[in-house]
Design brief:
- By secondary structure, the chain is mainly α.
- About 90% of the residues lie in helices and about 0% in strands.
- It has 4 helices and no strands.
- Helix 1 runs antiparallel to helix 2.
- The radius of gyration is 24 Å and the shape is elongated.
- It comes from Comamonas squillarum.
- Keywords: Coiled coil, Membrane, Transmembrane, Transmembrane helix.
- This is DUF2304 domain-containing protein.
């Protein structure tokens, strides 16, 4: 096994261990952790079988296989960023609605207190 294979495999295993630690410590949601575990598993697979990427690239007609890895990585990161923005938008909308509901409840409460006087 070449040095780069060992390095990639060890980094993938360490990355998976960190993800499991974060999930167990409730610092990372399980759903997000599953995505990152898939990334770690891919790193381990490519570390153990680096020719796997070459076979996929050949099948797609790509002559330089690391190009496939970079294009896929950029695509996955783009989708991940888009998903994060969608989740952030949903949360901001919920917070805005909660603030409006709270303001209405406070107004009704204030009016009830003033009516009692």
């Amino acid at each position: 096994m070449a040095n780069y294979q060992i390095t990639t495999t060890v980094l993938g295993v360490l990355f998976a261990a960190v993800i499991l630690f974060l999930i167990r410590g409730d610092r990372l949601y399980l759903r997000l952790g599953l995505f990152w575990m898939a990334v770690a598993l891919l790193a381990v697979l490519l570390g153990v079988w680096p020719r796997l990427l070459d076979h996929f690239a050949d099948g797609l007609g790509i002559r330089y296989s690391p190009t496939l890895l970079l294009v896929c990585a950029v695509g996955v990161l783009f989708i991940k960023a888009l998903h994060a923005d969608m989740v952030n938008t949903r949360i901001e909308r919920q917070v805005r609605r909660l603030n409006q509901s709270l303001a209405l409840l406070q107004l009704k409460n204030q009016q009830a207190v003033n009516d009692k006087r």
